[in-house]
Structure formats: C-alpha cells, structure tokens
Specification:
- The chain is an all-alpha fold and about 80 residues long.
- It is about 60% helix and about 0% strand.
- The chain has 4 helices and no strands.
- It starts with a helix and ends in a 9-residue tail after the last helix.
Length: about 80
C-alpha cells in the first residue's frame, strides 16, 4: 500500500462508523462496474459475524496486528 493510500486509510478508520459506511458506499458507487451481489449464504455469514462482534461474543483483531502476523509473500509487504 502506498504511503498516501495508508494515510487515507488511517484517516478513514478514524471516522465514526456511520461516516465510514458513507465513505465506503461512495467509493463503491465510484467504481465503473458494480460489485457482484453477495449470495444469501454469504449474507448470513456477514450478519452472524456482525452480531458476534456487536454483542462482544468475539473480539476483532486490529488490521495492523493481522498484517504483522501474515507470513511474507501473502500480501504482507504490500
């Protein structure tokens, strides 16, 4: 990830959740081709995982920590 992209990402992550969602929608809308719709099975997974995070049943891992744990050659360097 370029330094500029990293700066934009960090700024976006510091936004309140509602603003982040609006930014995400705007970025997706700017794409030339719309993203493929999620299959219902994946929607169920997303709903379940979101509920687990919201309820505190599971704890998320910050991206920086995930990135650091990634083995070299799997996108860790970029």
């Amino acid at each position: 990830m370029s330094p500029t992209t990293e700066q934009v990402l960090q700024a976006a992550l510091s936004l309140p959740p509602g603003d982040r969602f609006e930014l995400l929608e705007a970025l997706l809308a700017a794409e030339q081709s719309p993203p493929a719709p999620l299959e219902e099975t994946w929607r169920d997974v997303v709903r379940r995982r979101s509920e687990e995070l919201d309820s505190g049943a599971v704890k998320g891992i910050p991206w920086a920590e995930v990135h650091e744990r990634m083995p070299r050659g799997t996108g860790r360097d970029g």
